[in-house]
Every structure is written in C-alpha cells, then in structure tokens.
Amino acid sequence: MDEFDVVTGAFGFSGRYITRRLLQVEQGQSAEDIIRDAIGPETYTYRELVHTIGTIIGKNRPIISVSPQVGYWAGWLIGRLMGDMLITRDEIVGLMQDLLYTTSPPIGETRLTEWARNHASTLGLHYQNEIHRRLHREASYTD
Fold first, then answer.
1. pTM of the full structure
2. DSSP tag of 58
3. Average confidence score pLDDT of the chain
4. DSSP annotation of 6
5. How far apart are CA 87 and CA 132, in angstroms?
6. Residue 13's closest CA among 62, 60, 67, 52?
7. Where are the beta strands (DSSP E) in the chain?
8. For burial by CB atoms within 10 Å, which of 13, 16, 79, 97 has the most?
9. From the CB of residue 20, how many other CB atoms can be counted at a distance below 10 Å?
10. What confidence tens digit (pLDDT) does each residue in 46-104 have?
11. Buried b vs exposed e over 115-141: b needs ≥16 C-beta within 10 Å?
C-alpha cells in the first residue's frame, strides 16, 4: 500500500462531523463492566482527523465527499472484498448526527496526535480486519 494514496470518503458531503478519540488500553484489558463517555483530550472534525493523521504518517489522504448511500455501498463493496465490514448505515448516521461527540470532560490523557507521532513508522502499515478481531478476541491488534 505504500505505492499509492488511499482515498477516504466523507459522508454527507461536508465531513464536518466531530469526533473525539480515546486510547483505551487499560480499560480494554479490564473485565469490569462499565459505561462511560470514552473520549480523549483532542477534538477534530472527520476531515481534520484524516488530514492530521495523514500529515503525521507522511501520506496525503484525499477526501472525496459522497452521499451517505454511495458511501455505504462503497464501504460494503470494499468490505466484501476485504472479508470485513468497513462501515454500517447506523455508523454513518451516527457520524453525521455528531453522536461521536460529547461535551463531557475527557477521561483519557493521551493525545491522539502524540500517540500517532510515536507510532508513525508502523501506523497504517497493516490492515486489521475488525470481523476477524471480534471472532478471535484473544488475538491482539498486532497479530
């Protein structure tokens, strides 16, 4: 994949929906059953997030604005080819309605940009199949 740029789709044409990512290593290893607003200290629009990570890893990631329907079907087709589920209709609706954004204070301290810079040499080099990971929960993301 080093030889070409990956094109990213922005649903609903704007790509201005807001996300706050969180590094959840400690909680992910816990058997405790809890509910919390899992958000980190940085806030980005989807477009800003794609641009920021692309800059950190030294790869331009063009964004093409598409309708939610086209985005879903493109994601479905690519997912089928990859043996995975890339995005669901519910996820697209949630993104466009800013359901990934909350005004709660962040529970994590690690900045996504800091983490990405520390892992820039390996970030994005290997595809992690989400369905495989869910079926084989004992395997780590790095297997």
1. 0.69
2. T
3. 79
4. P
5. 15
6. 67
7. 8-11, 18-19, 44-45, 63-66
8. 79
9. 21
10. 888 889 999 999 998 888 888 899 989 999 999 999 999 989 999 888 888 888 788 88
11. ebeeeeeeebeeeeeeeeeeeeeeeee
Written as six digits, the tokens of 143 are: 């297997």
Q: What is the DSSP string of 118-142?
A: HTTTTTTSS---HHHHHH-TTS-TT
- Scan for tokens 């058997």, then name that residue: 31
Nearest to 24 by CA among 137, 105, 106: 106
The fold of the 8-135 domain, in CATH, is UDP-galactose 4-epimerase; domain 1 (3.90.25)
| Bridge partner list, 9 | 64
Read off the DSSP letter of residue 33: -
Question: Encoding tokens for residue 52?
Answer: 């920021």
Residue with tokens 């909680």: 27
Of residues 85, 87, 82, the one with CA closest to residue 69: 87
